[in-house]
Amino acid sequence: xxxxxxxxxxxxxxxxxxxxxxxxxxxxxxxxxxxxxxxxxxxxxxxxxxxxxxxxxxxxxxxxxxxxxxxxxxxxxxxxxxxxxxxxxxxxxxxxxxxxxxxxxxxxxxxxxxxxxxxxxxxxxxxxxxxxxxxxxxxxxxxxxxxxxxxxxxxxxxxxxxxxxxxxxxxxxxxxxxxxxxxxxxxxxxxxxxxxxxxxxxxxxxxxxxxxxxxxxxxxxxxxxxxxxxxxxxxxxxxxxxxxxxxxxxxxxxxx
Length: 256
What we know:
Structural class: mainly alpha
């Protein structure tokens, strides 16, 4: 038994400090654990988007959606399941909920396993990159990358799939803002006769106000593809911006 009161006080003080430390650290650990669980629960995903968007539907739309979802979940035949998934994708595409349209297009691709089906899913997710919600954009970019890479792996010589991926990076640049542009330029070099990438690069020049560069690209494009109406329309717009309205009107006659 400790008789010295100072020693006894010291022991009690040590015990109190140890207890206080234990009580402080344990709740902190628990709080951190709770925060992680909460973050996981609220993390954006298809289920979260679906729940939010369902609340915006009319009763008739909810009934239509429920019937399609029931058919999709219960169907065992791949061909019918794929057709139902296409209808679900179309349902959400018409409502401009592109993350969900992409999700069901992805379900189609998982069944059909073709480059085209993966690319369709990618383009739906790319549309979702226009969302005002960062979490939705992050999800759509991740999925657009995955879908595009799946398509490219099956058909590596199809430039459409690479264009999709480059477009995704341009619409929502992340760590490397030039990644999409550089991919476009590489694509133009690899496929010099690939019209879509030429048009896209011209449109990007317009969007960034590079009027001389846009005019140069479009005139070259028209020279190579004299029947390409989109190029004439874009060139007319560029000429207006450059203060050449009379020339623009003459050019515009070819885009009708």
